[in-house]
Each structure stands twice: as structure tokens, then as C-alpha cells.
Design goal:
Elements (H helix, E strand, L loop, with lengths): L12 H19 L1 H39 L4 H15 L3 H27 L11 H26 L3 H9 L4 H31 L11 H12 L2 H35 L1
Helix pairs in contact: 1-2, 2-3, 2-5, 2-8, 2-9, 3-5, 4-5, 5-7, 7-9, 8-9
């Protein structure tokens, strides 16, 4: 039985302070026209931020799981390919990946597609037909897939080998072993760091503004440049990101606490 952590009984004074700041910010927004105007403008960017984060994280999680399985396979070639990808991508800043995917990979992909299309009779496409929004989503997915792969790998390796041996003794094939034995136990280890990566991607989604994608950050820059009210505009931008990330962090903390309580039982 696990003993309760001392932090479990801490009163969340930080949350009280944050709630006070949020109440003050909400009061300013509701009582000053400039804040209402900025919030009305930035509201459109919230959906872009949410879409970029959700789609990018789903793609990164799928790719990360595949890379983790490759890194744990018996094939030396697959293990080395996965390790090469993970080490290279983890060593490149996200903003560089964004620029690389947008202005190097996308034109190369279009050129390769047009070469194939010319030979098989398909219609060609132009680089401008590859939207910057999707270039940004792909770049975030590529960048985070390497980190998520390590999360999945560590979680899968944390499963007691005796469990796998017992599954083998029962005659379960590799897929059924993974689905019924390995993954349900590994997910308890995987979920907390995976949730942290999701919160991090919410913040890093602001980097898509360098490509001109109209997310919260880009709309904030455009709004501030037009009304010259930088203080009010970036206050609202910060408030939007804080609302999203703190809410997600609280939900993740609640999930972790429930998982710990389940382990004690």
C-alpha cells in the first residue's frame, strides 16, 4: 500500500491567488470596452489554437506509439531507424521544425507529388495549395512525436516481465498480449507525462504564428499593431492561454490523484 504524499494535503493557496487574478481580469474585461473589443477579436483564434493542438497531438501520439513499438522490436534495423528519428527530432527546436516543414518539406513534397502526377496522368498541385495551417500541424506533430515516443517506450518497459511471460503461457499472441496485458498496465505510467506534453503543446502552438496562422498569438499581434494597445491586448492573450493550460493542469492533477487512489486499493 502506498503512503499518501505530503503534497496531497497542501491547501492550494496558489489556486486561490490565481482565482483572484482571474476575477480581477474578468472584471476589467467586462467593464472596459477595449478589453471587450480585443476579446471579441481573439475569440476566433481560440478555435484555431484548439484545432492545431488537438489534431497535432493526436498525430504525434499515433506516431510516437509507432516509434516506441519500433524501438522495442527485435529488428535491429527498425530499432536504429526509430532511435535515429527520435534523437534527430529531439535535437531540433520546434520553431526550426516549423520553418523547415513549411518552407523545405512542403515544397519538396509538392515537387515529388508533381513528378509522380506527371508520370501517371494526375493533375499537378502548387505549393500554395498546401495550407500553412496544415504545415504547422504537421511540424508540431513531428516535433512532439519524438518526445511522446520516449514516454510510450518508458511506460511499456515499466510493465513487469512476469506479466508478459504469464501471457505467453496462456497462449496469447503478440497483439492480444499488447492489448489486454501490456498497454492497460503501461497507461498508468504513460498518462501523467503524456498529459504534460499535451499542455506543453497548447503553449507551443503559439509558435505557429510565425507562419501567419491566425491563432490567438497571431491575432494578438495583428490587433496590437492596429490599435497600439499592447498592454490590454497581450493581457487578454495571456489570460486565454492561462485559462486553457491551468484548466488542463487541474484536470490532469485530479486524474493522477484518482489513479494513485486506485493503486492504494
Amino acid at each position: 500500500m502506498l503512503s499518501p504524499s505530503p503534497q496531497d494535503n497542501d491547501f492550494p493557496w496558489w489556486l486561490v491567488a490565481l482565482a483572484g487574478l482571474a476575477a480581477f481580469a474578468l472584471w476589467r474585461v467586462l467593464t472596459e470596452d477595449i478589453y471587450l473589443q480585443v476579446l471579441s477579436t481573439l475569440r476566433r483564434g481560440v478555435w484555431v489554437t484548439v484545432m492545431v493542438t488537438l489534431v497535432g497531438f493526436a498525430m504525434a501520439s499515433a506516431a510516437g506509439l509507432g516509434l516506441a513499438l519500433m524501438s522495442l522490436t527485435r529488428s535491429l534495423v527498425l530499432r536504429q531507424i526509430a532511435r535515429f528519428y527520435i534523437e534527430v527530432v529531439r535535437g531540433v527546436p520546434i520553431i526550426v521544425l516549423l520553418l523547415y516543414v513549411a518552407f523545405v518539406f512542403a515544397p519538396a513534397f509538392v515537387g515529388g507529388y508533381n513528378w509522380v502526377a506527371e508520370n501517371v496522368g494526375f493533375s499537378e498541385i502548387r505549393t500554395r495549395d498546401f495550407p500553412l495551417l496544415w504545415r504547422a500541424v504537421i511540424a508540431l506533430a513531428v516535433g512532439y512525436s519524438a518526445f511522446i515516443a520516449e514516454v510510450f517506450r518508458a511506460g511499456l518497459q515499466s510493465v513487469d516481465p512476469g506479466q508478459i511471460e504469464a501471457a505467453n503461457a496462456l497462449g496469447l499472441n503478440r497483439w492480444n498480449r499488447f492489448r489486454h496485458i501490456v498497454f492497460p498496465q503501461a497507461i498508468r505510467t504513460i498518462l501523467p507525462p503524456l498529459g504534460n506534453d499535451f499542455v506543453a503543446m497548447v503553449k507551443d502552438s503559439s509558435l505557429v504564428s510565425v507562419l501567419g496562422v491566425m491563432d490567438v498569438t497571431q491575432l494578438g499581434k495583428v490587433t496590437a499593431a492596429s490599435n497600439f494597445r499592447y498592454f490590454e491586448t497581450y493581457n487578454v492573450v495571456a489570460m486565454i492561454y492561462l485559462t486553457i493550460t491551468v484548466t488542463l493542469s487541474l484536470l490532469l492533477r485530479r486524474l493522477e490523484r484518482r489513479m494513485r487512489q486506485g493503486d492504494r486499493r
